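Collaborator request log, item 7. Partner lab (contact: R.S.) asked for a structural prediction of Leucine-rich alpha-2-glycoprotein isoform X1 to inform their binding assays.
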Amino acid sequence: MGGKEATMSSWSRERNQSPGGLNPHLSRTMFLLLLSVASAQGVPPDPTACLVFQSVNGTSIACKPPAEVPRRLPADTIHLAVEFFNFTRLPAGLLRGAPRLQELHLSSNRLHNLSAELLQPVPGLKVLDLTRNALSRLPPGLFRASAALHTLVLKENQLRALDASGLHGLTALRHLDLSGNQLRTLPAGLLANVPNLRVLDLSDNQLEALPSGFLRGPLCLERLHLEGNRLRALAEDLLAPQADLRYLFLSDNKLAKVAPDAFRGLRRLDMLDLSNNSLTSVPKGLWASLGRPTQNLQYGFDLSRNPWVCDGHLHDLFRWLVDNKEKMFFQNDTRCAGPEAFKGQTLLEVAESR
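Returned to partner:
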């Protein structure tokens, strides 16, 4: 490493300063890999101490039970993982004295509340992972000093509602994961101040509808996860602001209606999943902008496990399926529920017989 060796050790309370750390661009997976390599090279793990990795860029610390979480972090700490402790609240002043922190992983605890001041000492934070806690709300102003944050993971908490201003301050945010919560509704302006958002994951919530204009704000959303909710209809204006959307996941909802212009303007869509919904038919013209050879749906589409009624109302879909059958997933599971003459046949079989 540029003439200086990285070193690995366990946390010592006496060590309040350290000379190195992980390259800030290394992922958490790489960090754990480095820990494993260091262990394999003969560094004996101390189960009562946090693991510390040092290199020329800063210090990275990983704490899991039964280790004792340090009361004071090295000033050059860039990566901190405090996971599986079942904390209901964080140790007071945990982040003080670590202004260079770039990644904070707090997954698999039992955090119920966060202080609105939690992130104030770490304005350069880029990644915040709060997976599998018990958060039911986010305090107002939590992200007001988090202009550098690009990844926010709040999956598998107990969030029931979010304020319209809940994401204010996150101008650099690119990845937002709110999956596995208890969200029933979302405010129209939630995404108004996250122009750089690329990935939005709202899967496995209890959403029955999304407000008009909800996706206005992000300038170039690429991936949208809405699977595992209770959506009943796909409105024509929902996706309109996101012409560059590439991946759209709508499986495992209760969709029975899709507006004729729902997909119009999606010029780069590569993947569409509408499986396991309540679709019996779709409006004429819905597919007009999709499936053009060499232009979109390069990674395929899935219409399986819907109760399709294979009558004249599906003529437009039949023609489209024949033209795009090589991109179709689970052809054998995409079958007619009616009328009786076609019940049990695959849509593609019926389409090709017309």
